[in-house]
Write a structure and sequence with these properties.
alpha/beta, Rossmann fold, six-stranded parallel sheet, 44% helix, globular
Length: 393
C-alpha cells in the first residue's frame, strides 16, 4: 500500500510529532511505501501574521502542492496527523479532488476548542462545544492569550463546521480512547466513521526493575499537566520518597526553585533523551500523571507501562480509561487531598506494588504493541479506501 502522511510539526516537539514519526516507521517496517508531506511551525516566524491567519483558514499553497504530489505519487490513502495551522483543512479537499481516501487522527480537540484542550483557567472547559461560533474562546483569549489568534481559530472552526468539512470530507477518523471518541461524537462528528486506535511504541524497551524506589513526573512543565500541584503537595507527604521531575516548559524556573528548597525530597532533572527517560521511568516505583485536562493518550503512561511501572493518574477523561484502578496503578481526583491520599496509599501498599508492576507490563503487551497497532491501522485504511471507492460509484 502507498500511504501519504501529512503533518504540521509544532515549534516545541510533542506527542503528535512522535506519533507521526512512529506511524511512518511502522508502515515502512511492514513494507509499505510512505510519502511524507510536512510543514513546520518554525516557518511562522518569517511570515506576516495576516498570511498565517489566511493559511489557517485555507492554505491554497498546501492545496495545490498536495494535488501535484497526489497526481505524481498516486497514493492509496492520505493520513493526516495535524493540519494546523499551515497545511489547513484544504488538505482534505485536495485529496477528495484527486479521489484519494482521507484518514484523520483525533489527537486533540482543535475541531471544537480554540485552545485544543477543553481547558481554561486550570479547569476543564467545554463552553465552545456545539456552538456555531466559539465566541467564549475570543472573550477569554483561549489561544495563547491572544484575542486575534483566538478569533482566527474560532473562525476556522466555524467556517469548516458550516461548510461540512469535518462531517463530509474525511472518510475515517480514529480516536485514541472511548472517552475521546464520545467527545468527538458529542461535537458533531459522524459516529459511524470514528474508529479506535490507541498509541503504541514501535519498539518494546523491556521491563524495568523499579529498584530506584522514587516517583517520577515526565512531561511538559505547564499548568494543564498538574505538575505545579504535584510539587506543591510533595514536601507535605510523609510516606513518599524522592520525586524526580523530568521535562521542560513554561513553569521551569518556578519548579526549579521548589526543588532547590526541598533538595532531600525533590530533584529537578531537566530535559533528557528518550533512552534516559525510559531508564529513569523503569527504575521508578511509579510515574505520576496529575493532569488537569482530559489528555489524549499520554505517551508517558504508555512508556511507563512498557517498563512495568505503575501510574498514579488523574481520575479524569482518557486517563480514567487507560489506567486500571488498583491494577496497573491508582486514580485520583486532581486536587490536593485526593492526590495526597493516592500517593500515600501507593507507597504504603507494600506487596501491591509488585502486582501492579506485572499488571502494567501485561497491559502494554496486550494492547499497545506495534503489531497490534499495525493491524488496527490497516483496518482503518481499508475502511477509508472502501468508503472512497463507494463514493466513486
Amino acid at each position: 500500500m502507498k500511504v501519504l502522511l501529512c503533518h504540521n510539526f509544532y515549534q516545541q516537539p510533542g506527542g503528535e510529532d512522535q506519533s507521526f514519526a512512529e506511524e511512518a516507521a511502522l508502515l515502512e517496517s511492514q513494507g509499505h511505501h510512505v510519502i511524507r508531506f510536512t510543514q513546520h511551525n518554525d516557518a511562522i516566524r518569517k511570515m506576516n501574521p495576516l498570511t498565517v491567519a489566511a493559511r489557517t483558514l485555507w492554505s491554497s499553497k498546501s492545496y495545490h502542492e498536495l494535488r501535484r504530489l497526489i497526481q505524481n505519487e498516486k497514493p492509496d490513502v492520505m493520513h493526516c496527523t495535524n493540519t494546523f495551522p499551515l497545511i489547513s483543512p484544504a488538505a482534505y479537499y485536495a485529496a477528495r479532488k484527486e479521489q484519494v481516501a482521507v484518514v484523520q487522527s483525533l489527537r486533540n480537540y482543535r475541531m471544537f476548542c480554540s485552545g485544543a484542550y477543553f481547558m481554561r483557567d486550570g479547569k476543564v472547559c467545554e463552553d465552545c462545544m456545539g456552538r456555531r461560533f466559539a465566541w467564549p474562546a475570543i472573550a477569554h483569549k483561549c489561544y495563547r492569550g491572544s484575542r486575534a489568534g483566538s478569533t482566527v481559530l474560532a473562525s476556522m472552526i466555524a467556517i469548516h463546521r458550516s461548510i461540512g468539512t469535518w462531517a463530509k470530507m474525511v472518510d475515517r477518523y480514529f480516536a485514541l480512547t472511548n472517552f475521546s471518541r464520545a467527545k468527538f461524537i458529542q461535537g458533531g462528528l459522524p459516529a459511524e466513521r470514528i474508529d479506535l486506535k490507541p498509541n503504541f511504541l514501535l519498539e518494546d524497551p523491556g521491563p524495568g526493575s523499579g529498584a530506584g524506589g522514587y516517583a517520577v513526573f515526565v512531561g511538559r512543565l505547564s499548568r494543564e499537566k498538574g505538575v505545579d500541584l504535584l510539587c506543591k503537595i510533595w514536601p507535605e507527604l510523609q510516606s513518599a520518597p524522592r520525586l524526580k521531575i523530568i521535562g521542560d516548559g513554561p513553569l521551569l524556573e518556578e519548579l526549579k526553585i521548589v526543588c532547590q528548597r526541598n533538595p532531600s525530597r525533590m530533584e529537578w532533572c531537566g530535559r533528557m533523551n528518550r533512552e534516559d527517560v525510559l531508564h529513569a521511568v523503569g527504575n521508578a516505583a511509579c510515574l505520576i500523571q496529575p493532569s488537569l485536562w482530559y489528555e489524549g493518550f499520554p505517551r508517558t503512561i504508555l512508556e511507563a507501562f512498557s517498563k512495568g511501572t505503575p501510574v498514579i493518574a488523574s481520575r479524569l477523561g482518557s486517563m480514567e480509561e487507560i489506567v486500571e484502578h488498583e491494577k496497573s496503578g491508582l486514580l485520583a481526583v486532581p486536587n490536593e487531598v485526593d492526590l495526597k491520599q493516592a500517593i500515600d496509599r501507593f507507597f504504603l501498599s507494600g506487596t501491591a506494588q509488585s502486582a501492579m508492576r506485572l499488571a502494567a507490563r501485561q497491559q502494554f503487551l496486550d494492547r499497545y504493541s506495534a503489531q497490534t497497532n499495525y493491524q488496527l491501522l490497516m483496518q482503518i485504511y481499508e475502511r477509508a479506501i472502501e468508503t472512497a471507492r463507494q463514493r466513486k460509484r
